[in-house]
Amino acid sequence: MDLRAFFKTYYKDDMLYRALIWYNTEFSTVDDFVEFKLQKLNNGEEIQTLVHSLSMAEVKLVERLKMENEGQDVIYVEESEELLPLKEFQYIIDTPEGSVTHFDIIKKIYDTLLSEDLISDVKMMLDDSDIETPSDIYKLTPIYTGNILWLYDNLTSRHLRDIIRKLNITHYGSYKDSFIETVVNYLTTKEYISHALSLLPNETVLQLKENAEKNIHVYDNKTMWQEAKSLGILVQVHRDYLVMHEGVLNTLKDVDISNITSIDVSKYFNGYELLFVIDEIPSITRNVIIPTRLSGRELIEIIKESFIWNNNGSYISFNGQKFYENGDGIDASFIQVDAMLKAHPMFTFHYKSEELYKVNVSLIKTVTTEHYAPRVISHSGETPIDNVGDIDKVKSMLEILSRPDHIDYNVVYERARTRNYRERYPITAINAHIAKIIHQERPYYEKRKD
């Protein structure tokens, strides 16, 4: 059934009065009205007016009708009450058997939506099968350069309302369409996105700005970007990837972040930066990043590994209490490091050796890290040799080892090498070893051997 036959079949005399009111034109017969509607469809003006009256939900229904009814003529529309504009324009007709339209009408509407950039033919949320290797990242390009409204349609109404609340927006309508338009307008306006940036940690703002200047649109879906995601600056388009739309990126480029006062600490932090300092030899230090949710037993192991120590029987002390790595007292496994650092950002580690080393541990800051395993990020000073005597003996040996021309250098060097001494701090090997024994997804409960 072609379109003319469709209209002649389903248009009835009682529709002429409504057509008179709608078009301010009197039609003598149904055939006159049919020819009029065909002319309206062909010149496209009426369809153009129609598509601009559709909500995003209605656009999705049109798209679905088009995709599900390829090859058909007459389409029965179960959701006709959700497509009232098409009813008002008399492109959906109520019959005793149900509401009907014609595929050519739906296709004309769909094609006009595309030409008016009111719908995207780009898939906005990709599956694992769409991106199987890093080389497939190019498939994200049409998403972050395409229709921004349909990108933000990836967000739920609840997420959009959360963004609106966080940005303190007071006028935003009642439906998802208006939520999307409100958020998009906010994030693509220089003055408003500056406010959004002020709600992010300093390091995040700096990285976003740097990436924008480099035209970087794609981000890994990792912890450090969750706050930007929660504010809509980044939008999830795949399980593993977020994107910044080109419109938002270009707005960010124009922002002078030196005028923005950001927050210092991310509420999405998932790690800590700690400083270890040998109490008796303060020139020997280690800066270490550890993940959250570690036990005191795991922290003891990290401290020992960072100094290349192997003896057992060490303990952590704070507030007059001692927590041991073995059965000498209260087991350090009972300590939750997150709670300990919150209550005691400074404490002492006691290493069991002839030297009785004490390490002063202090919390530098919370961080967002994508590494499950702890790692040493910087160091200073020599290796604190263990089990060679007292602290004075260690200082004497380190002094000689710093002078290769010293008469006793070779003797001292040979002895130090039988212990834990290294001429060059093997940071890569140490971090690899720590990663083997302590992993956020594989808690350390007992001593593991390589």
From TrEMBL:
According to the entry, every stretch annotated as the Plasmid pRiA4b Orf3-like domain falls at: 280-417
Q: Which InterPro entries match?
A: MM3350-like_sf, Plasmid_pRiA4b_Orf3-like
**Name of the protein in question:** Plasmid pRiA4b Orf3-like domain-containing protein
Q: Which organism is it from?
A: Nosocomiicoccus massiliensis
